[in-house]
Write a structure and sequence with these properties.
The chain folds into five domains: 334 residues, no CATH class; 223 residues; 58 residues, no CATH class; 172 residues, Transferase(Phosphotransferase), domain 1 (Orthogonal Bundle); 317 residues, 4-Layer Sandwich (Nitrilase/N-carbamoyl-D-aminoacid amidohydrolase). It contains 44 helices and 32 strands. Strands 19-26-27-28-29-30-31 form a seven-stranded mixed β-sheet. Strands 20, 21, 22, 23, 24, 25 and 32 form a seven-stranded mixed β-sheet that branches. It is globular and about 90 Å long. The chain starts with 9 loop residues before the first helix and ends in an 18-residue tail after the last helix.
Length: 1270
């Protein structure tokens, strides 16, 4: 049994389900935030997760003996001025300490996990004490309760208490959300103040000095006493004091001493909040809880003569203080000093040992005659909105210009150091603005570059008939001109790093934007002297070490790594760049261990492991603890792993496969040394990789020596063919037909589940483990959807311990059925024995010389299974949220809540069986009588958090590409040409789509000028074949997110089933908002069953070839049709327009072009849908006009046709009485791209059309015969 809510108890801390979640959150945070951590050690621990967690549990059994492992220091540069003089790079002599450092810490992974677990047990209490940071800051009551915005955990509000979702993957809230609130709060607070004529309103920026490093053990101990309650477990808090008391490694004493002298710290030998500990941010807030209380109490009081505190908030150690000041106040001329004095006094009382950083205190006027506060945050929000909403080439150029302008204005506002009282003060720090601009410039550059024309270098020409003085067209950049801008921007980022080495992140982005060997050579020439014998010593050398380590790390993980070379500037030699970096890495590895630090050597080894392991200059593994495992990995990647212990061999094989090499190389490295013991070790770590090895081996020689337990788990040895009405194992039924497995749909899934549970209830006792090979079925075809006629669960003599299908130890005996059924359903849907592993296409990074984060262990995945449709690989997979939520409820792990409306699973197996049978009956009723097609209603959530009723505002975009000239001739058609994947058509097509989406945005703005309100849209409809699948995420997703609009678009021909002909289809893109996950995108593919004549012509050439082969008796060339019909189901998409349960939803559906002519489909949809949208590419416009006019009446609903603009004729009709209202719009003329809008304002009235039509003929036509009849 497990608990729903964690508390500060030692017994909970030891639970495996708590430690698994702590590991998951720790690993995710480290990979994203702490590059300098030993990520290979993290990969190795992940591959051996169960052993790693068992070791931690054993240590926790004796909490009184707990001793944290020594920290390793990673000195990182703080902001400082450097320069290049006579070719030598070094600090500018300014009187300040040269080479100022920040002591980042590498914390032992086991210590990290325990600290995170402690945090999870305290999360609810501490977060509730701090108040909800999501509340509206315009409410004075909210501002009075919430002070802290930094390092807040992801929580839900449950009856006024904040509860962290400790069983989810999320840990801290998004930085951007809370930081924006923090930055904007002072101005909001100032607007609520009504100062007298003798008052001025100021905002004061203040900062704590070396906050994390000044927190001593006694300060944390005092804070713990403040949060501890009478009935708490004292041993929990005693352990917490022991855990949060680290010492530095003896090898780092010199580095620690250098930093302590710089920071003027009397004692830095003991560390409470290491900068690099995942939980440090949370416990920093714990330390400041008493201080925050004092700030709350002071609001509204006079904190100094004539100075009233109006508001105060902080983001970790950064403060924003709003004060109203009498013009006669003595402290007005030194307001910063007066505020600092007050803050220092509060710190002394509530957080002794902490201190302010006087040089960072700034004062800006918010209300008065002058407004020197520069609101850079507002500009950043506008730019972010433009970036996240998608853009065409012109809008992208505007973003580039805006980003460059943002950086220039920040520099201008930050240049004045004269101390003038009215000096402009930016509301965002320089480094924040620079990072913001750099990241978004890179993203924008790579988004618009493929849209631009190439330039041969001769410059653009202008038509002779255009007068330069009157030409108002804005010329767009060419790729060459954009490349030049990128080079200038990248060099600017590199220059910022040269001037201030704390900008090393900007250096990385600069090199990624422009990965040029000459620039890298210059950077390395500045850094290399610090690694050579006789080079500069002490702090400056440590600054250079850190920067060089970042460059190497980036070289292995990001620099120049893109899925398409068109995203990189023309003419760059990425091979030369990597060769330059490879040479430097080899030099560093060959240097004496005493010359450079362990973390720099690790990054050099990581780069060589990823890019060229054979070049690493060593033959032995060595004994240095920090690099030994890197050397072992490199030796394995060279093919020298045969002498390793079996457990080490298996671990390195898994890490190599999942983080460094692709399938072929991994098999080449592993298979020759694969013994029976190593197979077993691999099965425990990565069953999917073992299957890859076995599948390759089976083609060459028989596989033997596989233990029975592993053989059953991996579904080996069941090769019987499937015949009609024959008994077959579930393993064979699924694996032999995947991905077209007839069980893999919304109707067969509950049919199987009901049969499984009915048989389970007859077993006495049921087996401890059920694998797919133990389930025997008799199946029957039901119009392409399988029915389960009989099901039997067989016992297995094989030992169950260690099985992939073994239920968790915390699961009660009478609930084992939940997991066994859930495991079987995931096996059916995923089509793979390791049902925990998400189904995904091979990443392009697998074939790149790079490091990628390793996959999680299968046992970790059990504590966080994602059961959404994307987890199973195919966007056409016909399952709805019902199956998704069923799986989540069945496989619910500790810390995961039961989905709403699925509490019946908690009532037991009998009630669950009853509900599942009810679902079967419901779906059978929904099947089309005329077509037999499975009609699937997909419930959706609103895209915003509002609950007011809304209309349906739709937009039909009549795009022109592809047009008839873009299609290949039937005899010359290839799969690639039919998919429109050639470079030239891809560029034209992408540019056309980008411009069309931008035109929609402009039209929405135009509509606001006469309709008022905001530019809002609910549904965007595009024609057949209008979008290439590669442009969905880059173009349509951002648009859907920005406007919270659903999209239905035709997709170009695509191979959705490996090795099968291409299919024509459309895609639903549905934005949804929830409190738990924010805004997310859901997709569903609507297939097209019937090919048009022009599409059949592409297959007729193949058929003629096959006939000729038979006549002349030549060997079969393997000719197959190029296109096929494919429609697994008919989707009905809910449009939630009202929050009231009494109001039925609007049901939207789509039919791709020729499918709309199927009268059987129209008949099946008539009583189920409300709006039919038809993405089309049809030249017979008149026929489709007549079809729309007929369907809208016979189906008695709104019918919308979005046709390709080459032929025009997009239209919309609904069954209104007045003809001029009945035709909503009709786009005449061709060829032309156009945009049309339609609105259903009163949805309630629209939904009543069937009931009211006969009595209110003034509004609706009289309905057709048989409407709503059974």
């Amino acid at each position: 049994m497990f608990v729903e809510r964690l508390e500060p108890r030692l017994d909970l801390l030891r639970e495996e389900y708590v430690l698994v979640q702590a590991f998951k959150k720790t690993a995710s945070y480290i990979r994203y935030h702490s590059w300098y951590s030993d990520t290979l050690a993290l990969d190795l621990a992940s591959a051996n997760l169960r052993v790693f967690l068992d070791e931690i549990r054993q240590r926790l059994m004796l909490p009184e003996t707990w001793s944290g492992r020594p920290l390793r220091i990673v000195p990182a540069p703080k902001s400082q001025s450097w320069q290049v003089r006579q070719g030598v790079w070094g600090p500018v002599k300014t009187g300040k300490t040269p080479g100022r450092l920040r002591p980042l810490a590498h914390v032992d992974l086991a210590d990290q996990v325990v600290a995170t677990a402690l945090m999870l047990c305290l999360a609810d209490r501490i977060e509730t004490m701090q108040g909800d940071p999501r509340r509206d800051i315009h409410d004075p009551g909210v501002r009075g309760r919430v002070v802290s915005y930094g390092n807040r955990l992801f929580c839900d509000d449950t009856n006024g208490e904040l509860r962290h979702r400790w069983g989810s993957s999320k840990l801290y809230r998004a930085y951007s959300q809370d930081y924006q609130t923090f930055v904007s709060r002072p101005e909001v607070a100032a607007l609520s103040i009504s100062p007298t004529e003798r008052q001025l309103v100021y905002v004061v920026h203040a900062d704590l000095k070396q906050f994390y490093d000044r927190v001593r053990p006694d300060l944390l101990s005092d804070a713990i006493e403040g949060i501890q309650q009478a009935n708490d477990d004292p041993t929990f808090f005693s352990l917490m004091r022991s855990v949060f008391d680290w010492r530095w490694h003896t090898s780092d004493e010199r580095d620690v001493q250098i930093y302590a002298e710089q920071a003027e710290l009397a004692d830095f030998t003991r560390v409470v909040l290491p900068q690099g500990l995942v939980a440090s941010g949370f416990f920093a807030n714990v330390v400041l809880c008493r201080f925050d209380n004092a700030l709350r109490e002071a609001v509204g009081t006079e904190i100094s003569a004539g100075i009233v505190l109006e508001d105060v908030c902080r983001y970790v150690d950064d403060f924003r203080i709003v004060v109203a000041v009498e013009t006669t106040a003595a402290g007005l001329n030194n307001l910063g000093g007066a505020i600092s004095q007050w803050l220092s006094h509060v710190l002394e009382e509530r957080a002794s040992g902490l201190a302010l950083s006087p040089e960072k205190t700034q004062v800006a006027m918010l209300k008065g005659k002058e407004l020197p506060l520069v609101r850079q945050s507002a500009k950043m929000r506008r730019i972010q909105s433009a970036v996240s909403g998608g853009f065409d080439a012109i809008a992208g150029e505007e973003i580039v210009d805006a980003l460059q302008g943002l950086m220039r204005s920040q520099e201008a506002a930050s240049d004045d150091e004269g101390g003038w009282r009215l000096t402009p003060v930016p509301d965002v720090r320089d480094e924040t603005v620079a990072r913001f601009a750099a990241f978004r410039f890179r993203r924008t550059f790579r988004s618009i570059r493929p849209l631009l024309e190439r330039d041969d270098g001769r410059g653009a020409t202008q038509p002779d008939d255009v007068d330069e003085l009157v030409d108002v067209r804005r010329p767009t950049r060419t790729q060459r001109e954009l490349d030049e801008d990128a080079r200038t921007f990248a060099l600017g980022l590199v220059k910022r790093w040269v001037d201030d080495p704390s900008n090393v992140r900007l250096l990385r982005i600069g090199l990624d934007l422009w990965p040029d060997a000459d620039i890298l050579r210059e950077v390395l020439s500045l850094l290399r002297p610090f690694t050579e014998k006789g080079g500069r010593r002490k702090a400056p050398r440590r600054v250079a070490w850190y920067c060089l380590a970042e460059v190497l790390r980036a070289g292995a993980t990001e620099t120049g790594l893109v899925p398409d070379t068109e995203l990189l500037p023309t003419g760059l030699d990425l091979v030369a760049y990597r060769e330059e970096l490879r040479t430097e890495a080899i030099r560093l590895v060959a240097i004496s261990a005493r010359t450079i630090p362990w973390y720099l050597r690790q990054q050099a080894l990581l780069f060589l492991a990823a890019c060229d392991p054979h070049a690493a200059p060593f033959t032995l593994t060595g004994r240095v603890a920090e690099t030994r495992h890197y050397r072992e990995l490199i030796r394995f990647l060279r093919g020298e792993g045969e002498k390793l212990r079996s457990s080490d061999f298996a671990t390195l094989a898994v890490v190599a496969r999942r983080a460094f090499v692709g399938h072929a190389r991994a098999v080449e490295l592993t298979r020759p040394s694969l013994t029976s013991v190593r197979r077993q070790q691999l099965a425990q770590r990565d069953p999917s990789f073992l299957l890859e090895l076995l599948d390759v081996a089976a083609r060459d020689l028989p596989v033997d020596g596989l233990p029975a337990r592993i053989s059953e788990d991996l579904c080996r040895g069941d090769d019987a063919a499937i015949g009609p009405h024959e008994t077959v194992t579930l393993a064979r039924a699924v694996l032999s037909t995947h991905p077209r497995d007839p069980l893999r749909n919304e109707l067969s899934i509950p049919r199987f589940a009901a049969a499984f549970l009915e048989h389970w209830m007859q077993l006495e006792p049921p087996p401890d483990v059920v694998t797919p090979g133990q389930v025997r079925l008799t199946l029957e075809d039901d119009q392409g959807i399988t029915d389960v006629v009989e099901l039997e669960i067989l016992a297995s003599p094989t030992a169950t311990s260690g099985s992939l299908y073994e239920v968790p130890v915390w699961c009660e005996t009478d609930e084992r059925w939940r997991f066994q059924l859930g495991f079987m359903l995931r096996f059916i849907l995923s089509g793979q024995p390791d049902f925990t592993r998400p189904v995904a296409s091979t990443s392009w990074k697998e074939e790149q010389p790079s490091y990628r984060p390793a996959e999680s262990h299968w046992y970790q995945r059990l504590y966080g299974l994602f059961n959404g449709q994307p987890a199973f690989g195919d966007d056409w997979l016909p399952i709805t949220e019902w199956v998704e939520m069923l799986l989540l409820a069945l496989l619910r792990w500790p810390g995961c809540r039961v989905p709403d409306s699925y509490g019946w699973i908690e009532e037991g197996i009998g009630e669950t069986t009853k509900r599942i049978k009810g679902r079967v009956a419901e779906l059978e009723q929904m099947r089309g009588n005329a077509t037999g097609v499975l009609m699937l209603p997909l419930l959706t959530k609103r895209p915003t958090d509002t609950e007011t009723k809304r209309p349906l505002r739709a937009c039909v975009v009549q795009t022109v590409i592809p047009s008839s000239g873009d299609f290949p001739s039937a005899d010359a058609a290839t799969l690639d040409s039919l998919a429109f994947s050639g470079r030239a058509i891809r560029q034209r097509h992408r540019r056309h789509l980008s411009a069309a989406l931008e035109a929609v945005k402009r039209m929405l703005e135009l509509r606001t000028t006469h309709k008022g309100g905001k530019p809002e849209l609910d549904w965007l409809i595009l024609p057949e074949l209008a979008v290439h699948p590669d442009d969905v995420r880059t173009h349509l997703f951002p648009f859907a997110q920005a406007y919270r609009a659903m999209i239905l678009t035709g997709l170009t021909y695509q191979e959705v089933l490996s090795g099968d002909p291409l299919v024509n289809s459309a895609l639903w893109i549905i934005p949804e908002w929830s409190k738990a996950h924010g805004l997310q995108i859901k997709t569903r593919r609507q297939g097209k069953e019937h090919l048009m004549k022009g599409e059949k012509d592409f297959n007729s050439q193949v058929q003629r070839q096959m006939v000729m082969e038979q006549i002349v008796h030549v060997p079969d060339t393997g000719s197959t049709p190029k296109l096929q019909g494919f429609r697994p189901c008919q989707w009905l998409i809910e449009y939630p327009w009202s929050a009231s349960d009494d109001d039925p939803p609007v049901w939207l559906t789509g039919a791709v072009c020729y499918d709309a002519t199927d009268l059987g489909l129209a008949a099946d949809l008539r009583d189920k849908s409300d709006i039919l949208a038809i993405p089309a590419l049809n030249k017979d416009v008149k026929t489709f006009d007549q079809m729309a006019m007929a369907l809208h009446y016979h189906m008695f609903q709104l019918v919308v046709v979005a046709n390709n603009g080459q032929y025009g004729g997009s239209n919309a009709y609904w069954p209104r009485s007045n003809p001029h209202i009945r035709q909503v719009f009709h786009n005449h003329g061709q060829p032309q791209a156009s945009i049309a809008f339609l609105e259903v304002d009163d949805i309630g009235r629209f939904l009543e059309r069937r009931e009211t039509a006969s009595t209110n003929a003034n509004d609706w036509k009289y309905p057709p015969a048989g409407l709503n009849s059974p």
